[in-house]
Write a structure and sequence with these properties.
alpha/beta, 252 residues
Length: 252
C-alpha cells in the first residue's frame, strides 16, 4: 500500500511556523512513499495585483520570498526525507511570471522567474507539475484555480465540482477548506467521484487582507492518502491552532 501526504497553501512567509516545523518532523518520522504539494507554497506578495501601487509591492522581492521558502521548508524537508516530492502549479506560484507579462513585457520570457526555477527544484531533486498530476488510477491532484472549476461556499464542494469537470476524483487546495465529499450515480450507485480539499497551513494572523478579526471559512489541515492499486482512501488531518496534529495515534 502506498502512503501519500498532501499539503497545500503554506504561502510562505505567511506560513504557520509551528505547523510547518511539525509537518517536517512528521515527514521525517513517517517517511511516506510520496509528498504532493498542491501549490501556493510561496505567497509572492509583491507581484500580486492586490499589491500594485501599495507598500506591499515594495516588500520582500520574489527571489527573497523564494529563498525563504527554500531555507524554511524545502531544504529542511530534504534533510529528513529523500523520497518523491511533487509541487503543483498554482495561482500564487504564477504571480512572478504574470507580473512580468503585465508590467515588464520586454523580459516576460525570463525563465529564472518560473516557479520551479525560483525554488531550485531540480537541485533539490523535486518535481514540478504545472497543471495537474495523475497520481493514481481515476484520481488527479490539481491546485484548483483553473478556469471552469466552480467555487462552492462549503468545504469539499469545490473539489466535487472539479471532479465532475474532470470525470475523475480530485484532490485540491486553493480554497483553504478541508473536507472529503463523495457523490455517487449510476445503477446501484456503481459510479463514485470523490472530492478532497486539504485545507491550508497559513498563519491567519499574518493574512492582513482578512481584516482585524481574521474572519474566514478556512481550516488548517493536510491530507493523507492510502493508495491500494485502484483504491484510494483519503483522510483529512486537522491541524490545531498551535500547529499540532495527530496521525495514526502519534501527536506532533
Amino acid at each position: 500500500m502506498k502512503r501519500i501526504v498532501v499539503i497545500s497553501d503554506l504561502q510562505m512567509p505567511l506560513e504557520h511556523n509551528k505547523a510547518n516545523k511539525n509537518l517536517i518532523r512528521f515527514l521525517g518520522d513517517y517517511q511516506p512513499d510520496e509528498v504532493i504539494n498542491i501549490g501556493d507554497i510561496t505567497d509572492y506578495t509583491a507581484p500580486a495585483r492586490w499589491s500594485a501601487g501599495k507598500r506591499a509591492e515594495y516588500g520582500m522581492t520574489v527571489k527573497q520570498e523564494a529563498a525563504y521558502t527554500i531555507k524554511n521548508h524545502l531544504e529542511p524537508v530534504r534533510a529528513v526525507y529523500d523520497g518523491k516530492y511533487t509541487l503543483l502549479g498554482s495561482n500564487h506560484g504564477e504571480r512572478p511570471h504574470k507580473y512580468l507579462v503585465d508590467r515588464c513585457p520586454a523580459i516576460y520570457d525570463e525563465d529564472a522567474f518560473q516557479e520551479q526555477n525560483l525554488l531550485c527544484l531540480d537541485d533539490l531533486g523535486m518535481d514540478f507539475e504545472p497543471l495537474k498530476y495523475d497520481f493514481a488510477p481515476g484520481w488527479i491532484a490539481t491546485h484548483g484555480h483553473a478556469r471552469g472549476i466552480n467555487l462552492a461556499r462549503y468545504a469539499g464542494g469545490t473539489a466535487i465540482n472539479a471532479a465532475k469537470k474532470f470525470g475523475k476524483s480530485v484532490v485540491m487546495g486553493h480554497t483553504h477548506r478541508a473536507a472529503v465529499t463523495n457523490e455517487s450515480s449510476g445503477e446501484f450507485a456503481s459510479k463514485k467521484l470523490t472530492g478532497v480539499e486539504v485545507g491550508h497551513l497559513m498563519d491567519v494572523k499574518k493574512a492582513g487582507y482578512l481584516g482585524g478579526a481574521g474572519l474566514s471559512n478556512w481550516q488548517m489541515a493536510f491530507g493523507l492518502l492510502y493508495v491500494d492499486g485502484s483504491n484510494v482512501t483519503p483522510h483529512i488531518i486537522p491541524v490545531n491552532g498551535n500547529g499540532s496534529f495527530v496521525v495514526e495515534g502519534q501527536r506532533y
